[in-house]
Amino acid sequence: MYCRLIGIPLQDGASRLGCEMGPSALRVAGIRGALEELGHEVTDIGNVVITDLPDVRHPNPAVRNLPQIAAWTQLLTDVAYRESAEGMPIFLGGDHAMSAGTVAGVARRAAEKGRPLFVLWLDAHTDFHSLDSTTSGNLHGLPVAYYTGRPGFEGYLPALSHAVDPANVCMIGIRSVDVAERDALKQTAVTVHDMRTIDEHGVAVLLRRFLEQVEAAGGILHVSLDVDFLDPSIAPAVGTTVPGGATFREAHLVMEMLHDSGLVGSLDLVELNPFLDERGRTATLLVDLTASLMGRTVMDRPTRSY
User: Fold this and answer.
1) Which end of the chain has less neighbouring CB within 10 Å, N or C?
2) Under CATH, which architecture does the 2-300 domain have?
3) How confident is the model at residue 297 (pLDDT cuts 50, 70, 90)?
4) Catalytically annotated residue among 12, 83, 123, 268
5) Marked catalytic residue, from 20, 96, 259, 277
6) From the candidates 83, 181, 226, 231, which is the catalytic residue?
7) 129 is catalytic
8) H helices within the chain, ranges in order?
9) Does 215 participate in catalysis according to the annotation?
10) Domain ranges in the chain?
């Protein structure tokens, strides 16, 4: 497969600095080499950056860095659309605000191909706030609400050309949801599997059900992997740690099943904050998980020491 690496040094959506170093950490951890060892052709287009900021303001005084997030969303919508023309774009983040643009861009591409876009959201959080409901003002908490076409973003973030059907969104690993998000989600068809559901049924059963839905619809799948999907004991390099996340084997099983499905068309790697890491262990784990998604098997996995 032809893979396109796109660095997104975005940290304006988070409260802690450091996510802008995420793309560099993933490169140092060997993401290109890991993909090439699996036989994939890889092009790294480098990092993209915003330039002009729009003059946008919101009446919610908590909202932070709205002009920056608006600019990033427009840029990444265009970049994701362009880079998904051929091969598989892998977006190296950067905080999760970037997915407002990456998902919007690949949704436009999928629509041009006449296929529905599905999104697998691997995260501790639902990121379903609106600009009105956020109390922290951290805009990495709103991308799902935005790209599924929820109201309240008009005039502040770029207009969507193709919203994602909420029924095509599956969240796995959820364990930290604000009341406003919970109430908003009840009004939608988004599938939410929290960690209790995983404990009771196993992640394979839940994921297989969703993949069958994607395949039956002839869809294209975008995967958005947040570091805090993982338990902080194995992935400490994130500013939004929530105990009780996915284990090492659960995470690799998800990626191995995604590879077997043949449905994934694009990937986000988000919220990696190298400043909070331990000798690069989280960046290395993200690279290993990406390799599992792209075809590395259990028997192929190298021995690691930290």
Assistant:
1) C
2) 3-Layer(aba) Sandwich (3.40)
3) confident
4) 123
5) 96
6) 226
7) no
8) 22-28, 31-37, 66-83, 99-112, 143-147, 179-185, 195-201, 203-217, 248-261, 281-293
9) no
10) 2-300
